[in-house]
Design brief:
Blueprint (H helix, E strand, L loop, with lengths): L9 H16 L3 H7 L4 E10 L5 E12 L5 E8 L4 H18 L4 E8 L7 H14 L9 E5 L5 H15 L23 H17 L7 E5 L3 H12 L3 E7 L2 E4 L6 H11 L9 E3 L1 H5 L5 E4 L18 E3 L8 H9 L3 E3 L1 H4 L2 H15 L5 H26 L3 H20 L4
Length: 419
Amino acid sequence: MWDMPDSGSIFGAMLQEFDEAARILNLEPGIWRILTHPKRQITVSCPVQMDNGEIEVFTGYRVQYNITLGPAKGGIRYHPDVTLDEVTALAAWMTWKCAVAHIPFGGGKGGVVCDPTRMSRRELEALTRRYVAEIIDAIGPEKDVPAPDVNTNDQIMAWVMDTYSMHVGHTSTAVVTGKPVELGGSLGRREATGRGVMIVTREAAKHLGLDLKSATIAVQGFGNVGSVSADLLARAGARIVAVSSSKGGVYNAKGLDIAEMLDYAREHKTIDHFPGGESIDNEQLLALDADVLIPAALENQITADNAGTIRAKIVTEGANGPTTPDAHKMLHGRGIFVIPDILANSGGVTVSYFEWVQDRYGYFWEEEEVNARLEKKMREAFDDVLQTSLKYKVDLRTAAYIVAISRVGTVTKMRGMYA
């Protein structure tokens, strides 16, 4: 039996966002119940022999929240703080994200409780293969298609694909996305989430009458999403004045050289002590007087405690769930234009969909075509959410949920109840 969590949980926060939109839609009670319960939650134990000869047992999760629109889709994260509540919330957000992006996927998510920074390459491979073996019956090109997430990458996805392929007896590239290009990955996939963040930020600036070429931008997080967002926005003419990571940040009112910072990060594995500006921490970055703030780190970074310090005109949520519901209300109440995660960072899953399509066809597109198709999908999604926001006179987060719930709810009703 699934016990509904309290509002203090990450999944509880998702439910708060869902409920407001569902009430506006006057969603049928039965459909409401279906869409607020995960379809399947899997917990597995993953024994791994470590390099020192000892056996460690890691806990892994895979949640398939909803598969009404198509196979579950969502990343696998490796992190010491992974919980079933977090993975369930992320799987739910993936459901709405895919619906907002208008792609034929449901929502899924996976995670393993571990600290990958303390593990060797061999240990990570052994853990990945064991985790996949434990969930093998639940995944597949027509069932559930994983992807990279926090602390996982294209190499780990290659191990996922190979393990699954060995079990089914043939090479199955479409079982996972975010793979190396040589193994059926899509050109443009690595940059896709950050490119999507750039596109919706640009569209929001147009809507608000803000000239992006004179705008100042602060980016929290310099992983894949944050670094690509910063780079592409800088190339578009914006001035990136601050960037932070888990180990520290850098501020320069005149603008940071993002190309140099990328080189520095590759060499030093951190941006801390980057010589192009002064040191800054995450809280200071969030409170900067910048036109655009892009939280691209982890969940719950903007809370009721610090929402009052946010001075940006636009907040583009590059991360999943970076703003708590109470904080979002505070930001919206102050007239801050928040582009919600289920819209802002949907570029990654959109190009994952493109990769899945290419794998199934066995025909691959040039990067220019991938980027052009992503541009079209992101602009359409932004316009759908913006027009819904104007129609119902609600903020963009509520509007995005209205779009998503309407699409999933309509198909749920059309399909009927299997008994």
